[in-house]
Amino acid sequence: MLAILLALGTAVGYGTANYLAPVLGRRMPLATVLLGSQLAGLVVSVLVTVGSDVAMDAQGLAFAIAAGLANAAALACFYRAGRTGNLSVLSPITASGAIVPVLVGLATGDRPGPVQLAGIPVVLVGIVLAARRPAAPAAEAGSSAAPASRGLGWALLAALLFGVFLATYAEAAADSSPGALLWSRVALLSGTVVGVAVLRAPFRVRPRDGALTAVPGLLLALATFAFGEATRIGLLSVVSVIATLNPVITVGLAFLLLHERPSRVQRIGAVLALVGIGLLAAGHA
């Protein structure tokens, strides 16, 4: 049950950060949000791991670095998709990356019970439905509305990379949870810095804005640490699905804080996701 709670904590942390970061991106350059949040995430990771043994063997370190780079690339691809495509279509596609660690877990020996096996597809379907925003009517969207297929390739790549991040981070955490957190964050920040430099993305920051960008980074770092702990005591194929409930959290915050109204499909998806969690928790007890 502790693994389930930790995975839910991951979903809440990721979902809240994924709500805050785009909101902040409306008032400052995206590069500022990415660099500020990842720098804060690294600082938090250092504080969390103070006094812990962060030494890793070569294989564990390689997995941690791969996880950080995959995470950086996934974020870059997702935001690249969002620049030209419809996020109501792209977000659920990106969330489907949860299937990667599920397949890895099953291939490497995870043996969920029948109740858990039933819960996994229920949660995945719930995530896709609950994260999906209804498309605006053509009359309201106007001629500038993005075609549904625009950005699809970038979103699919982001889904794959995010799934790779979850799977490789779990392998790194199996060696050392503190080490996985620290070294993956080092790789994530380094990859982000290189990406911003290569793309020559605009970057400016004021002290107040810099403090605000730290919040998503704090949430992401803590959520990632919770995920690593969950994979150490639970099945990867189960906790990775629960951790990727984060789109449901993001959409829920948008409903509450931006006064958006959920569609019937989203309400059905939320209920399915909760039912799936119940099945996974019951089978994990």
Gyration radius over CA: 18 Å
SS class: mainly alpha
Helix content: over 70%
Broad shape: globular
Task: Give the CA-CA distance, first to last residue.
Answer: 6 Å
How much of the sequence lies in strands comes to under 5%
Q: Estimate nothing, just give the exact number of structural domains.
A: 1
Low-confidence stretches: 138-146
In N-to-C order, the SSE pattern is HHHHHHHHHHHHH
Mean pLDDT: 79
Instruction: Give a short account of the largest sheet.
Output: none
User: What is the helix tally?
Assistant: 13
The number of distinct β-strands equals 0
Structure in words:
With 285 residues, the chain is mainly alpha-helical. The protein has one domain. The chain is built from 13 helices and no strands.
Quick recap:
Helix content is 79%, strand content 0%.
Give the topology, please:
Layout: H1 2-25, H2 30-49, H3 58-84, H4 87-95, H5 99-107, H6 114-131, H7 138-141, H8 152-175, H9 177-199, H10 207-233, H11 236-243, H12 246-257, H13 264-284
Helix pairs in contact: 1-2, 1-10, 1-11, 1-12, 2-9, 2-10, 3-8, 3-9, 4-6, 4-8, 5-8, 5-11, 6-11, 6-12, 6-13, 8-9, 8-10, 9-10, 10-11
Features:
single chain; 285 residues; mainly alpha; 79% helix
